[in-house]
């Protein structure tokens, strides 16, 4: 299983944005839509061995965690950002009344929303996956040997905070796909392509 965890500092935690202006009204949920496409979509297929956590930390509500679970997912992901943003909106609407920590609501099979925090998701993930932090200054991805269950953490266009990085110290190994700062969706696509090329890909 491949897991991608992306923390979006400005992404809205309520479905109060406009689909016709995602970059301007949603806190860059358009970026998260592109990450989902890069994580799951093939030219004529769909990756079932992938899980994506979208951690939304923008206004106006407390943080929301939206999970797309490839093996169970029964909704269609299309290349266009609009239809993917609609799924995120439905998840946010389903999670409006969440109060209990860790409580999860299934929106569709394989798509759920909770009020888990960044730290919650990391702790949950490391129970059964090796964790890597995607960062320009990390060890080159080509130098590592990966187990069958891997998880990759990355930030949005603003990156992770110093507090987030401090939390990951000793938990996640830094790994790099290059010394330049690439788009998050491109990084996810590169990691998928690299892992596909391995003799025994995760």
TrEMBL record:
Q: Which UniProt keywords apply?
A: Cytoplasm, Methyltransferase, S-adenosyl-L-methionine, Transferase, tRNA processing
Q: What biological-process terms (Gene Ontology) are attached?
A: tRNA methylation
Q: Which residues form a coiled coil?
A: none
Q: What is its EC number?
A: 2.1.1.257
Give TM segment ranges.
none
Q: Which residues bind S-adenosyl-L-methionine?
A: 134, 155
Q: Which Gene Ontology cellular component terms are annotated?
A: cytoplasm
Respond yes or no to whether keyword Cytoplasm is given for this record.
Answer: yes
A single GO molecular-function term is: S-adenosylmethionine-dependent methyltransferase activity
Its localization reads:
Cytoplasm
What reactions does this protein catalyze? Answer: pseudouridine(54) in tRNA + S-adenosyl-L-methionine = N(1)-methylpseudouridine(54) in tRNA + S-adenosyl-L-homocysteine + H(+)
In terms of PANTHER family, this protein maps to:
TRNA (PSEUDOURIDINE(54)-N(1))-METHYLTRANSFERASE
Q: How does it assemble?
A: Homodimer.
Under HAMAP family, the record lists:
tRNA_methyltr_TrmY (MF_00587)
Q: What does this protein do?
A: Specifically catalyzes the N1-methylation of pseudouridine at position 54 (Psi54) in tRNAs.
Would you identify the family this protein belongs to, as annotated?
Belongs to the methyltransferase superfamily. TrmY family.
For this entry, the protein name equals tRNA (pseudouridine(54)-N(1))-methyltransferase
Its lineage opens with: Archaea, Methanobacteriati, Methanobacteriota, Thermococci, Thermococcales
GN (gene name): trmY
